[in-house]
Amino acid sequence: MQEALILAYLDALSKGDLPALLELFAPAAVVYSPLYGKKTAKIFYADLLKDSKASHIELLNVFQAPGTSHAAVNFLYHWTLANGEQVRFDCVDIFHFNAAGKIIKLKIIYDASLTRPALQRTQNT
Question: Which DSSP category does 110 fall into?
Fold first, then answer.
């Protein structure tokens, strides 16, 4: 079940589908991001999509911890920012699910040394 939810998450993220993304999260869910810091899922994804023109995701691996509420996914993220600039990075997302199967915490891990300057250029235009 966790893998299906993760695949639905990646699909919604690649499509920039805010309602579909938020449907996967519990109301008080929190996202930890190298670029945006700690934010509620609702605010994080609204900000991310505002700063995005397009996304393409290459799935590498899904990792599940049997019998737990944790899973992770590794993917290559091809991100086109709102100003048209493109960045690509290797990303790991760590998911924590509640008993209802909703995401309650998402920790995003990647090297932001290239993405941070690109995002700043987008936000300054």
Answer: -
